[in-house]
Write a structure and sequence with these properties.
By secondary structure, the protein is α+β, with helices and mostly antiparallel strands. 27% of the residues lie in helices and 29% in strands. Strands 1, 2, 3, 4, 5, 6, 7, 8, 9, 10 and 11 form an eleven-stranded mixed sheet that branches. α5 (160-171) packs across α6 (185-193). The relative contact order is 0.18.
């Protein structure tokens, strides 16, 4: 495996790193993207650091160590970044047809969710219902398509999260990934209900 882009593309086709308790160390796919992805019994670290430095800090056979604070803090210090939270990453294939009626693309949104999407993704496009509900899709880690949704607090509990997560599958040009905080159970349920399949866990390091 020579690049994170290749690894994620293989994962999109159902070909995962071997579940052998191993560790794969890859270069950063871009100056922005540094982090750790944990698949089933296999961890991937993508950062422009010496592989020996990484291996010295990860005890063999300790599958939890790459996503635990000691290693993440060390990696953050080594790269001059700060570690974010651990996210569930999930994947869904594209769906045909236009997005649901009432969901319109906008180009001038100043919503905080959009601002965050633009910090971590390229080619971000945004759709909204006009009632505070929002879908953002863009190219994130290693160029993969990523989706983020936001439902206005006054409109939660109506299935809108599932609708927006499903709409991402219609507007993205290919397979789309979602990064969801595990503690946000409502969001996890929405993405699962929209057909997303859990792939692993991920921590990104922001500059």
């Amino acid at each position: 495996m020579t690049s994170l882009t290749e690894l994620l593309t293989d994962a999109q086709h159902g070909h995962f790193p071997p579940a052998d308790g191993g560790l794969t160390i890859l270069p950063q796919p871009s100056p922005r993207d540094v982090g750790v992805i944990a698949f089933t019994a296999h961890t991937v670290v993508f950062a422009d650091v010496e592989p020996a430095w990484v291996r010295e800090r990860l005890p063999p056979g300790d599958l939890s160590a790459p996503l635990c604070p000691p290693f993440l803090q060390a990696l953050a210090g080594r790269t001059g970044r700060r570690a974010g939270g651990v996210d569930l990453i999930a994947l869904a294939g594209p769906l045909p047809g236009p997005p649901p009626a009432g969901l319109e693309e906008v180009t001038d949104s100043d919503h905080p969710r959009v601002a965050r999407a633009r910090r971590y993704r390229d080619a971000v496009r945004v759709w909204t219902t006009g009632d505070g509900d929002l879908l953002a899709v863009g190219r994130g880690v290693a160029g993969r398509w990523e989706a983020a949704v936001e439902v206005d607090p006054s409109r939660r509990g109506r299935g809108l999260g599932r609708l927006l997560a499903g709409a991402a599958r219609q507007v993205a040009p290919g397979p789309v990934w979602a990064q969801v905080a595990p503690g946000n159970a409502a969001s996890v349920r929405a993405f699962l209900a929209a057909g997303y399949v859990p792939m692993g866990a991920e921590v990104l390091l922001a500059s």
